[in-house]
Write a structure and sequence with these properties.
Strand order of the largest sheet: 1-2
Structural class: mainly alpha
Largest sheet: 2 strands, antiparallel
Distance between the termini: 16 Å
Number of strands: 2
Strand content: 5-15%
Shape: elongated
Number of helices: 6
Length: 132
């Protein structure tokens, strides 16, 4: 259970980092394009934030297997064979995790029930988070 608590604390830390990124990008976008509360500007902002977060995660998972938060909590994302994820695996992990977060954080709740305490997107894609 201690392992699962560390993973959830890592998510809280990661969320704070992503909030800072989203606020910074939103401020820059607003200065460049004005109000982005509807229409194509809103979609553009959403894609910018989602894509920027994805670039951060994919880079971290393919280079070291760790984001800033997972370094702090001594966690690492690896492929089924124990190697780092390649960029296709990392991109797929980000996209599937994004989709599985939409229905009330399904992928996060799944870890409570999973025999290895893995998130649903990791179970489906063959990746896993290990404790260093």
């Amino acid at each position: 259970m201690k392992y699962l608590v560390k993973r959830y604390l890592s998510i809280v830390y990661e969320s704070l980092l992503m909030l800072a990124l989203a606020l910074t990008l939103t401020a820059i976008y607003y200065m460049l394009f004005g109000d982005a509360s509807h229409g194509w500007k809103r979609l553009g902002l959403q894609l910018l934030v989602w894509g920027s977060m994805g670039a951060y995660f994919v880079r971290c998972w393919t280079v070291t297997g760790q984001t800033l938060a997972s370094q702090t909590w001594k966690l690492k994302v690896i492929a089924q064979d124990g190697d780092l994820l390649n960029w296709q695996q990392a991109a797929m992990r980000y996209m599937v995790a994004s989709v599985l977060l939409l229905p009330a954080g399904l992928t996060l709740w799944w870890a409570i029930l999973d025999r290895d305490q893995q998130f649903l997107h990791d179970r489906l894609l063959g990746s896993r988070i290990v404790w260093l």
